[in-house]
Design brief:
Elements lengths: L1 H11 L31 E2 L4 E3 L2 E5 L2 E2 L8 E5 L4 E5 L10 E5 L2 E8 L8 E9 L4 E5 L10 E5 L2 E5 L2 E2 L2 E2 L5
Antiparallel strand pairs: 1-4, 2-3, 3-5, 5-6, 7-8, 8-9, 9-10, 11-12, 13-14
């Protein structure tokens, strides 16, 4: 169920799928309905999300004024509520994000500055159990607007933009 949950996390910010699980295939929300859930406390866009347990972590993005955000907000599926968490070390929009080993990885993206901002290869790691951020080894090259996903204990970051060009990189 955890891997299946990871695939729908991006959709959870738009709305939550019905809570039906197909008993034959185990697929989540196959024929469910869209249901409105608690909205983000402050409007943001262009941010990723990653799930750890029954919580969805939404780091960064662009705020309502179009500025890069360092916010981390956590959605609790069980209580249908959002809570703030410690902000990222630096603002990011269009990063990738994935959960692995109980931690949330925020990968690359654009930083603060004149839009779109400087592109980065940095990787920030949030440990929900400790409530702290750390850094991990950066990507080999800066990238933004890519997707990141955990599979088999490894994180893959695929596609995106570098230097104004769309790339097919898979790292």
């Amino acid at each position: 169920m955890n891997r299946q949950w990871s695939w729908i996390v991006s959709l959870a910010l738009l709305a939550a799928c019905g809570d039906r699980t197909d008993p034959l295939t185990g697929a989540f929300g196959v024929e469910g309905t869209w249901t409105s859930k608690a909205p983000l406390p402050a409007a943001r866009q262009e941010m990723p999300s990653a799930a750890v347990g029954a919580r969805i972590y939404t780091p960064g993005g662009l705020d309502a004024q179009g500025a890069a955000s360092a916010a981390l907000t956590v959605y609790d599926v069980a209580t249908d509520s959002w809570t703030p968490a410690p902000a990222m070390p630096q603002p990011r929009h269009h990063p990738g994000a994935a959960a692995a080993g109980g931690k949330v990885y925020v990968i690359g993206g654009y930083g603060a500055g004149a839009f779109p901002g400087p592109i980065t290869a940095d990787v920030f790691v949030f440990d929900p159990a400790a409530g702290t951020w750390s850094s991990a080894r950066p990507m080999p090259a800066p990238r933004a607007a890519h997707v990141s996903v955990e599979l088999g204990g490894r994180i893959y970051s695929i596609g995106g933009v570098r230097g104004g060009a769309v790339v097919g990189t898979n790292e």
